[in-house]
């Protein structure tokens, strides 16, 4: 059962998603509650698992990882590995940022980042397709990211 969140909790989450480094005094003013209450609420959100961690949002272009691609992959059950194990092995690859087990015609959705499309190709051909349990893949390179949340 999920934690019961009220409007204050939702406002705090929204503000922290915008800037996880926002100080307590500023959050107190924006949300309209005392600083001690802000501190308590954030602590409770962490304890309840609503907030899993505080993180940063890198500028991937400045890190020379400006090319994002999404890969659909088919799982091969005859590999002897479970689909979850295959997903874990994919998740351990450098350049892989997300791995989802999905429903439908494809079994896995993988998000990768690289300096350019040639390097995306190396991730797919030289690493991803070498994983036992991976069958057919389709790679889609993103032209531009309009919205991306952490």
Protein architecture, described:
This protein is of the alpha+beta class. It folds into two domains: 7-47, Orthogonal Bundle (Arc Repressor Mutant, subunit A); 67-141, Lrp/AsnC effector binding domain/regulation of amino acid metabolism (RAM) domain (Alpha-Beta Plaits). The chain is built from five helices and four strands, in the order H-H-H-E-H-E-E-H-E. A four-stranded antiparallel β-sheet has the order 2-3-1-4. Strand 2 (96-101) and strand 3 (108-114) form a beta hairpin. The two termini are 23 Å apart. The relative contact order is 0.15. The mean pLDDT is 95.
Name some characteristics of this structure.
150 residues, alpha+beta, Arc Repressor Mutant, subunit A, Alpha-Beta Plaits, 4-stranded antiparallel β-sheet, elongated
In short:
With 150 residues, the protein is an alpha+beta fold. It is 35% helix and 20% strand.
Helix content: 25-40%
CATH architecture grouping of the largest domain = 2-Layer Sandwich
Radius of gyration: 20 Å
Strand ordering within the main sheet: 2-3-1-4
Fraction in beta strands: 15-25%
Mind sketching the topology for me?
Elements: H1 7-18, H2 24-31, H3 35-47, E1 67-75, H4 83-91, E2 96-101, E3 108-114, H5 117-127, E4 134-141
Antiparallel strand pairs: 1-3, 1-4, 2-3
């Amino acid at each position: 059962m999920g934690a019961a969140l009220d409007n204050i909790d939702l406002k705090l989450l929204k503000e922290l998603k915008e800037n996880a480094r926002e100080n307590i005094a500023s959050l107190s003013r924006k949300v309209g509650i005392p600083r001690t209450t802000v501190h308590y609420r954030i602590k409770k959100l962490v304890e309840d698992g609503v907030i899993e961690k505080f993180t940063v949002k890198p500028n991937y272009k400045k890190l020379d990882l400006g090319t994002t691609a999404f890969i659909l992959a088919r799982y091969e059950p005859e590999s002897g590995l479970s689909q979850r194990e295959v997903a874990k092995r994919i998740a351990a690859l450098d350049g892989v940022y997300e791995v989802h087990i999905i429903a439908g015609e494809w079994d896995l959705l993988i998000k990768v980042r690289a300096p350019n499309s040639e390097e995306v190709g190396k991730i797919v051909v030289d690493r991803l397709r070498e994983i036992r349990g991976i069958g057919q893949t389709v790679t889609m390179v993103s032209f531009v990211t309009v919205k991306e949340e952490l």
